[in-house]
Amino acid sequence: MIDRKLSLSVAAVTLATLLLTISSGVAFAQVIASATGSGQIHVSGEYRTFTFSAQTDSTGVTTGVTQGFNRGLPFSWQGSLNCLDVEGNIATMSGTVTYANPDPGPSGITVGTPLVFQVIDNGEGNKGTGDLISLTFFNPGGPAFPCLQSIDGIFANIPIEHGNVQVHKQ
């Protein structure tokens, strides 16, 4: 009887150790870069709003969403982000349009159109000089934008009004 109890106890401890080893061996992807923000801008007197959130995990997968509304046209869009390149306080993001209203929008922007934009996080509160954003560029009928900071013509140089962006990299 004692041998049977001892055998059951050893088996239970062995099973518990095995389960603990297996569960601790499971790796979870961690966020290594992120960019979030929202606000308003004026471009040629036209009022526009934007919001975005993107993150890249330790496996290299980027997920995110973005949307914008140009009240001057009017044109609104939403997009899925699959690229985030963070260099210091600058983040460049790209992906594809998932919703356009009207569809097609200006210059033939439709669902599936590649998009890219860039932001600069210049700090918070009195420490900051004001965050910046670029226009969102679309490539109707063209290939996806590369996942690089140095895309020709993409410069975050428009001051963000009543908003904020945050850029982080581990």
Task: Describe this entry's structure for a reader.
With 170 residues, the protein is mainly β. It has one domain. Helix content is 14%, strand content 48%. It has one helix at 2-24; strands at 31-43, 46-57, 62-70, 75-87, 90-101, 114-120, 132-133, 137-138, 158-159, 161-169. Strands 1, 2, 3, 4, 5, 6, 7, 8, 9 and 10 form a 10-stranded antiparallel sheet that branches. A hairpin with a 4-residue loop joins strand 2 and strand 3. The protein is globular, with a radius of gyration of 23 Å. Residues 4-25 have low confidence and may be disordered.
Describe how the helices and strands are arranged.
Elements (H helix, E strand, L loop, with lengths): L1 H23 L6 E13 L2 E12 L4 E9 L4 E13 L2 E12 L12 E7 L11 E2 L3 E2 L19 E2 L1 E9 L1
Give the gist of this structure.
The chain is mainly beta and 170 residues long.
Shape descriptor: globular
Main sheet specs? 10 strands, antiparallel
How much beta, percentage-wise?
over 45%
Based on CA atoms alone, the radius of gyration comes out at 23 Å
**How many strands appear in the DSSP assignment?**
10
Helix content: 10-25%
The secondary structure category is mainly beta
On the 0 to 100 scale, the average pLDDT is: 85
Distance between the termini: 57 Å
Task: Report the oligomer.
Answer: single chain
